[in-house]
Every structure is written in C-alpha cells, then in structure tokens.
Amino acid sequence: MLQATPVKLKADSVKLNYYNDRTKRDLSVLDGIDFSVNEGELVSIVGPSGCGKSTFLAAVDGLVSIDGGKILIDEREVKKPGPDRGLVFQQDSLFPWRTVQRNVAYGLEIQKLLSKEEIAARARKFVELVGLSGFEDSYPRELSGGMRQRVNIARALAVDPELLLLDEPFAALDAQTREFMQFELLRILDRAQKTGLFITHQIDEAIFLSNRVVVFSARPAKVKEIVEIDLPKERTLDLKHTPRFMEIFRHIWRLIEEESARMGLLRVH
C-alpha cells in the first residue's frame, strides 16, 4: 500500500478581520479559508486584486493574527513567525552593504546556532544552489533583478525552512527574466526538496509552477475552487501553448472574472 504524502500546511476555517478606523467597523478579509499543501508540493493562490492573498500569506508566516480557525504547519499551530517558514517578498529586500555571501548568511547569523565557519559554508552551498557561484563577493547593486531575487530565495532557504512562502517574487521582473526565473524556481525547489506556497496575479505562472492552484473568491475571501494541474511533471515553455494548458487557463480566468465582477472591478456581459 502506498503511504499517503504528509500534509505540510493546513488552513482550517481561517478567518481574519481588519478594523477600519474611518468607518469604525471590522472589515472581513478572510472568511473560512480551507485547503492544505502536501509535502513537496508547490501550490499557488490566485484571485481578484485585493481579495486577501498576501494577507493570508502573512498569516501563514505569523506576521498577522487570525480571528478564527487554525493554520497548522506539520500539525503545529502557527502563533508567530518562526524558522520553519521562509518568506520571499516581491522586492528583493537585500542589504545593499552586504555581499551576496553575507546576505545569504544573514538569517543564519541571527539564529546564532552555527559557528562562523559553518555559516560561511552553508551560505556558499545555497549561493551555488541558486546558480550564483562566482558572485559571492558581489554587492546587490552589481546584480540584475533576477540575480537579486535568486539571492533572496537562497537567503530564505539557507535557514532550512519547512515551508517556503513566496509573495509575487517575480512581479518586478521583465517578462523574459520572469519566465527564466520560473524555471529556476522549479529547479531550486526540486534540488532543495522544499514545499512552496506561491502568490501571483499571473494565471499562466500559477499553472506552470504548480501542482494545484487555489482560487480565492472576492473579499471576504473563501476558496472558490482548487484546480488540479494535470500536466507533465517536466515543465517546458512549449507546455504553455498546449490545448490542455490553455483549457486550464481559461477555466481559472473565468473563475476570477466572476469574482472580479462581484467586486466591481470589471463588467461581465
């Protein structure tokens, strides 16, 4: 009998409200989010602009508190940020006065669990993993946008998180670099044997990267649908032009279109 894949992340009826100072009322942002991410998966979240995707990711990281339900990582409830999660932001957020090597080492230095020699060796390992060998002593200003994001991913992975959280990490890149970084992310996660939760506005990016795509409804967000991505494991650019890829794209777009209309972002005739 095949052993079931362990669940790495579970969102169980997650609710979150923001208090609006102007109206003096609570604004419901998340209204019962339910889904799970299995170990080794990359799952993407898409939905209408402003529906609460990044807020949910912040809740998974423990940066904001939820008002109902539970978020569990390896069956442990999330109460605050922790080393079991690595967060990659939209902007690379590197320290300009630190080299590539020392940016990657930063989280390890904060943890104070390893010697200087061990930190340096581990940082070099992840610089190599993201394909930046030879740039260890370069500064962020000397790197392209894609290279800076690779440093950002290496820094998040260096602390050995159980779950990598990515909040539109390629949004600031040009289209060509963005496609290249999609390939790089799949390669990096495969080699590092990590589980990922990815936020994006790009439907084709979500399909290309993911095992499953979670579609959020209009705010207050619920899970409108979870779409299984039944495409070959080996992803190539040609895959984006296949009939099945386009069929999945159109299906997800229709789901988002319906919810965008509910939010008044567009009119559906």
UniProtKB/TrEMBL annotation:
Family per record: Belongs to the ABC transporter superfamily.
Stored CDD domains: ABC_NrtD_SsuB_transporters
Lineage: Bacteria, Pseudomonadati, Pseudomonadota, Alphaproteobacteria, Hyphomicrobiales
Domain of life (superkingdom): Bacteria
Protein name: ABC transporter ATP-binding protein
SMART domains: AAA
Entry's Gene Ontology molecular function annotations: ATP binding; ATP hydrolysis activity
Organism: Sinorhizobium mexicanum
Alphabetized UniProt keyword annotations: ATP-binding, Nucleotide-binding, Transport
Classification via PROSITE patterns: ABC_TRANSPORTER_1, ABC_TRANSPORTER_2
